[in-house]
Amino acid sequence: MHRPGRRIAWAAESPEDPFGVAAAAAAAGAGWKGSDGAPSSRSSSSTEEERAKGAPPVREAEARDEDEQPLLRGIFGVGKRSCDVVLSARRLSWSPIQPERPVGGSNVGLTNEEESVEMKDVFSVKLKRRRFAGQQKGGLLLGITVFVCLKKEGNKLKDSVINLSNLSEDHCYLWFKHLKEILNGFPNRPKSLKVFVNPNSHRKEAARIYHEQVAPLFKLADIRADVTVTEYEGHALKLLKECDLTSFHGVVCIGGDGTAHEVAHGLLLRAQMDARRDGDDIIAPVKAQVPLGIIPAGSTNILAYTVNGIQHTVTATLHIIMGHVQSVDVCTFSSPTKLLRFGFSSMFGFGSRALALAEKHRWMPSSQRKDFAVLKTLASLKPEYCELSFLPLEQDAQGEDTKQQKRLKSDSRDHWRRIQGHFLNVSIMAIPCLCSMAPRGLAPNTRLNDGSMALIVVRNTSRPEFVKHLKRYASVKNQFNFPFVEAFIVEEVKVQSRTRKERITRDNLNSIDPEETNYPWNIDGELMEWPSEVCVRVHPRLINLYGKSVGAVDNPKGSCSCL
């Protein structure tokens, strides 16, 4: 934002004080004074007391004006110019100081624009000092460094710095104190995090990503991190069941979808244990007590992509630091006798068989393994005979963008629908599942927190037609626009595979393969072996995830190389 600059007289400059701030210390040391001689700075604590008392709606405009009132005003060097800097509860602004124009002179070539940054975009402030090699403390104070979170192209975030140069310690300490008070007033910004690093994710780069890109930003934001490098599958889940989470403001995992799924499942299981709802049949689970942050470092990062709109380490880290939290729907997967898992998305059929094949070839490079599994599964494409019972959701007639969904009563059997037949794939997803290869999402007919699931069924068809359907995911065209594809918005689904029962009827028991007693499911990219009957329910806003909600991936660059 640019506004006309302020005009004041230059302070005397010297080689030791190029910005003239030392000469102006009397005026700037405690802030500029108004016409009545009183300092223009005001205590931010008094402002907070006023806000705590509450203001009626008629005073909302006054409260906004209050946030714009200057708390401090002084002289700093910004870049190579001496600037008049003003701090309010809402923003930090600065404009070049212009010398008084001599009689008959002109200000040709002098800029008079004001620059500013919103305080909500500032994530750290530090005192800047010059130190000798090996010197750990002290040093010559040079000013204040302000660290800012900037939004770049698309959904990418970037950290940037603003250096405010001033050699007066009293002046800098006063500004530093007020800046810290403002930052400490922002809600949801964590100060203590439990961090899980999966060293075996993708190319085993998770530890390097954390130490080189994530940890320095956490340190800059004064966030204490208790780091655990997991040693085996299920290690994070075991620790989450045992550790005391009350001392942490959030939990962070560095890995792929499998790591994120394990940690999310662990957080939700722990919440049920603390609420004494850790039984097998959880109809109304309680919400996870702390938010979850996901740093993408795996071969698949759909969950991180969906909550951040991009697969980018710094972006995910800055969302955590800034306290950008959103509530997200979660599914429970249950057998007739017990809870099986918490999760966000699932596939049964082609999606699970391809994953099962990929897991058997872990020795292959990630990209080659996925392509090989998809092509191999396509070559032996076969349908599953299933019976699907589902409870649909009614939609208010307000259009796709503003749809508000109304839950039907689950105990009314009249609302349940049932379909059966041979299906190539069945997807049940509570989130859109965005990625570069699916810019509209694997389930574009749902949202992160609208209390619904997308049920997408692909009936038996020819291999070429099924490949056309898969290719649609990599484009902006409607992947459901096929006669063999059906999509529903639901709140509960019961899946019962009839394959085993048919074999029992057709042949004798000895002909049944024992390994087919359980069926493969793809749950958030993790392979699960479950019984033939599974119930899936959606639970609105059951967990908080760090990130910002996005509708679709902007300017997708990925494509499905295997199709």
From TrEMBL:
Domain DAGKc per the UniProt entry, residue ranges: 188-337
Record carries keyword Zinc: no
Membrane spanning stretches: none
Signal peptide location: none
UniProt keyword annotation of Kinase present: yes
Chain positions covered by the region annotation Disordered: 26-67
Keywords: Kinase, Transferase
Coiled coil: none
Gene Ontology cellular component list: membrane
Molecular functions per Gene Ontology: lipid kinase activity
Pfam families with a match to the protein in the record: CERK_C, DAGK_cat, PH_CERK
GO process terms (BP): sphingolipid metabolic process
Protein name: Kinase isoform X1
Source species: Podarcis lilfordi (Lilford's wall lizard)
Organismal lineage: Eukaryota, Metazoa, Chordata, Craniata, Vertebrata
